[in-house]
Design brief:
The complex is a heterodimer of chains A (113) and B (116). With 113 residues, chain A is an all-beta fold. Chain A contains no helices and eleven strands. Chain A is globular. In chain B, strands 2, 4, 5, 6, 9, 10 and 11 form a seven-stranded mixed sheet that branches. Chain B has a four-stranded antiparallel sheet with strand order 1-3-8-7, with no helix packed on it. Chain B has no helices and eleven strands. Classes of the chains: A mainly beta (113), B mainly beta (116). The interface between A and B is medium-sized, with 27 and 28 residues.
Amino acid sequence: SQQGEEDPQALSIQEGENATMNCSYKTSINNLQWYRQNSGRGLVHLILIRSNEREKHSGRLRVTLDTSKKSSSLLITASRAADTASYFCATVSSSGSARQLTFGSGTQLTVLP
Amino acid sequence: DGGITQSPKYLFRKEGQNVTLSCEQNLNHDAMYWYRQDPGQGLRLIYYSQIVNDFQKGDIAEGYSVSREKKESFPLTVTSAQKNPTAFYLCASSIYSGAFQGETQYFGPGTRLLVL
């Protein structure tokens, strides 16, 4: 079963605007990761946020984590056409012995020039 | 260049045929993974291996088999028992600290499997 669910499923914005994607999950987590996938390609890791962290930045990316609401958001500022891709959140459960990544179904972001 | 390679890029399978997808990494990672991605969906874990000569089933292992004879290699065989194999297959690797905490995974470019 997929733990993380992204919202919205698709997002279309103009270049220069900010893009916000949300991820909700069901069980307690050890960490949450965001990945990007260009069409027909493999995934690229963007950022990892641990359960005891609330916010993390990397370049134009800002990730927040609210463990009480079991949700995370990914903000891309000053978007560019090259940011067009699918974005996935992946959670690592804090229970059980095998800490695999469980992926959501992704948000398809289109940045229009 | 360090990274993960997958081959072939496209693979065609005939009815009743077993096919093997290759995954090689030179990142010196202990852990390797195979995922299946269907159109418009997220990734689902097929198998994973934390160390050579050991592997574990993921969420959708039925109809698939793997081996881990070398640290660098983790081939996936799609057997004839997998009735709906058409999908995009992604291999990944990560470090394994011994206390598996869900480390960052590095992905290959993928293999698209199509049924003739």
